[in-house]
Predict the structure.
Amino acid sequence: MTDIATPTFAIVGHPNEGKSSVVSTLTENDRIRISSTPGETIRNERISLTVDGKAVVQFVDTPGFQNPSQTLRWFQQNSTGETNAIQEFIRQFASNPEFDHDCELLKPLLEGAGVLFVADGTRPIAQSDLAEMEILRLIGCPRMAVINVKSENQDRVAEWKTAFRKSFNAIRIFDACKADFQNRIELLEALKSIEQDWTPQLQQSIDALLKDRDRKRSRTVEILFEALEKSIVFSKSRLLSNESDIDRVKADLERDFSKDLKSIEQHSWESMLRLFGHTRLTVSLPDQSILSEDLFSEQTWQALGLTRKQLAIAAAGLGAGIGAGLDLAFGGIAFGVFTATAAAAGAGAAFFKGRELARLKVKRIPLGGYKVSVGPNQNEQFPYVLLDRAFLYYQHISTRAHARQETHQSLADESDKSGVCSQWRNEQRSLCAKVFRAIKDRKRESLESLRGPFSELLKESLIELEL
């Protein structure tokens, strides 16, 4: 068998069995054409799983056998071991259109590739399936059977396993449209068992993928941190010459302030989407998903963020200085001039029942005119809601198989607190409160000292969301 620097596997099977879907998910490539029309693949297509621009595993999407019964008879008569049967078959039938697909499929095997035989485990086994299995057994290439279960019905899976055991080195069940990162790693691990000589190369590929996954988590943490920094200190202002314009400008600023905060969130989501290679996905979530709700909707703030008690405990460690301006806004968001009392101090401020997100201020300019401004954010609950929504989005795209063609994802909309932040321990939420306060007060030295443990907390939460 030819020595190949990059482990290569030919994806073999009947049309519309899920071969392209398997390749799409394994390579994290949603640009691969996945069609329900049989016979779409007529030429081999090589797709690499790349890490840092380097191919670590290569897959060849093949057209499938065109005449399995006749091809099997030929190999039964010519697999003597004295000649390379694959090379001889291609030589004899290369110009015969009736065996065009068979020749095309066998080319990567001639080069030393292994085989991933993909079958839809929900349909009955056909005689042509048995013929194809026997062809691959006679050829003697390293081979694994992949049962792609395309529906909830698994009544025939046992039959497929029994048939595959006679001809294959290993068997795996792999739902290409539901497989997450761990499922992909497990499949690559199983491939090591079909050819011992490939073990070091495949292990290097697996190690590279694990390292790349950790890099993506670290980059996601940076994205979240950047979004928090921008959102917490964000403000807008406008200069006016006439006092009569103030009321009109107030409404415009409030609207623009809300719109721009939503844009900061959307930009962070798009960055995560690109990071995980979902180039064609346009997220359109159903009505029951909390992510389909507006950032400032009542439902969002009821489901995500912290409870009153959790927020009070997190805020208690910051001292009395946080009281003025604290706003839970559990019943929805409104804008306006914030008014606080002397009693709003320390942990007690966590129970203030106002609804303002940010202060709107009007200031007379000494040389004439007025400055109207809104922000920065005064709401201590807001960063937790922002984080919880980002966590939900991360879970959606980091666990999504690239073979999935639809754009909808159902996420529960519960009245109780259902976000990640509400599940943290008290000391973890207190750490967050300190980080948010350091951002708000623009204390760079304090923020840098907190950044390490805060980043670790975020990263640990991302790992949990992938499980």
